[in-house]
Amino acid sequence: xxxxxxIVALGALAQDTRLAIxxxxxxxxxxxxxxxxxxxxxxxxxxxxxxxxxxxxxAGLVTSIRDGRSIIYAADFEAMGALVGYLTENCCRSQPxxxxxxxxxxxxxxxxxxxxxxxxxxxxxxxxxxQ
Amino acid sequence: xxxxxxIVALGALAQDTRLAIxxxxxxxxxxxxxxxxxxxxxxxxxxxxxxxxxxxxxAGLVTSIRDGRSIIYAADFEAMGALVGYLTENCCRSQPxxxxxxxxxxxxxxxxxxxxxxxxxxxxxxxxxxQ
DNA sequence: TCCATATTTTTATAAATATGGAAATGAAAT
DNA sequence: ATTTCATTTCCATATTTATAAAAATATGGA
Lengths: 131, 131
Known about the structure:
Helix content of chain A: 40-55%
Distance between the termini of chain A: 35 Å
CATH superfamily of the domain at 3-77 in chain A: Winged helix-like DNA-binding domain superfamily/Winged helix DNA-binding domain
Largest sheet of chain A: 3 strands, antiparallel
Order of helices and strands of chain A: HHEHHEEHE
Oligomer: homodimer
CATH class of the domain at 3-77 in chain A: Mainly Alpha
Strand content of chain A: 5-15%
CATH topology of the domain at 3-77 in chain A: Arc Repressor Mutant, subunit A
Number of helices of chain A: 5
Number of strands of chain A: 4
Radius of gyration of chain A: 19 Å
C-alpha cells in the first residue's frame, strides 16, 4: 500500500459515524449489512449514511453488493489488513521494541526498557496546546 | 485505546504533510528532529509546520522536548503501537484469517482462501462513485 | 404500467481544516 | 540590554467536510 491510499483509508476511518459503521461491518463479518440497517442502527439519515458508505467504498475499505432493493455492505478485511501493515511498517521501522503489543507479533515480551538515550535533552512534555 | 482517541490519531495521520512528518520522525528514531529541520525537509512554512506538529502532539503521536532554541519532536512509538492494536482488533475480530499479513502475526500462512460464502448475493462491485 | 421501497445524487449550508504572512514568545549570544 | 535565532500564536483566506432536505434512480410486486 502506498502513501496516497493509506491517507484516504485513514481519513475514511477518522470519523465517528464511519468508524462506527466499519465496526458494525467487522462484527457482521463477510455477510455484511444493508445500508438501511446501518442507517437505522446508527440513527443517521439515509442520505448521510450513503455519503459515509461512499467514502468508505472509495477508500476501498468496504464492498457493496446489491441484493434486491437493498445494497449490502461488507468490510474488506484484506484492505484493512493492508492498512494495518502500512502503519506497522511506518511505526516500527526504527524501534520495533517500543511499539508495544499489537504492532509487532507478541513474541519477545522481554523488553528491558533501557538503553535508548535521546541524545542530550531534558524537560519532556507530552503536548503543548491544551494540556 | 478507546474510540475517541483512535479517531483523533487517525485524523492526525490522514494528511499528506502530517503523515510525511511522522514518517520522518519514525526514521529519526527516539532522538527525533527539530521543528525547523522538518519544515525545511518538507518545504512548508514554519507556521504550517507548527500547526501540523501541534495536531500530532494533541493526538498523542509525538513528543516534544526543548533543546536550547530548538524544539525537538519525536515519534511516540508506544502510542502508535496502541493505534495499530486498536485497528487490529477492529479489523480481525470476526475474520482473523482474511486480514492478510500485518494484521495478525504471520504465523499461519496456510490460508486456503475458501469457505466464506456471503449469504446469497451476486454482482460484486468494489466502488460506486468515480470508478 | 403504476406503486411502494431502498438507496443514491443533487443542492445548499454550516462547520472544520489547511495555509502562510506578520507579530509575539522564549532562549541563547554578543 | 540588545540582538539573533527558532518556534509559536494571531489573523485572514481558501478549501474541504459533514449534514440533511428534496429530487432522482433502481428494484420488485400488484
